[in-house]
Amino acid sequence: PDVTLIYESGPIGARPEVLPLSIGDGELAETADTVVSTPEIFRYWLQGGRVDVGFLGAAQIDRHANLNTTVIGPYDAP
């Protein structure tokens, strides 16, 4: 398929040979076409409308469909 993997940590065009442990896995940066800053991913690529489809994993989803992708429980003591 015509797909380019983009991760919020900065890798664009990554082709990992193994399943990454997280978005910060070095395998992503090592196999990427380029790596940009997190602000650039969000400002230029995502908010700029340059990404057609995105997928997020959610630690929690509330009754209003708000996603918590960071931590379950208090941030200082998850």
TrEMBL record:
Signal peptide: none
InterPro entries: CoA_trans_fam_I, NagB/RpiA_transferase-like
Protein name as catalogued: CoA-transferase subunit beta
PANTHER family, A to Z: ACETATE COA-TRANSFERASE YDIF (PTHR43293), CHOLESTEROL RING-CLEAVING HYDROLASE IPDB SUBUNIT (PTHR43293:SF3)
Keywords, sorted A to Z: Transferase
Listed GO MF terms: CoA-transferase activity
SUPFAM superfamilies per the UniProt record, alphabetical: NagB/RpiA/CoA transferase-like
Domain of life of the source: Bacteria
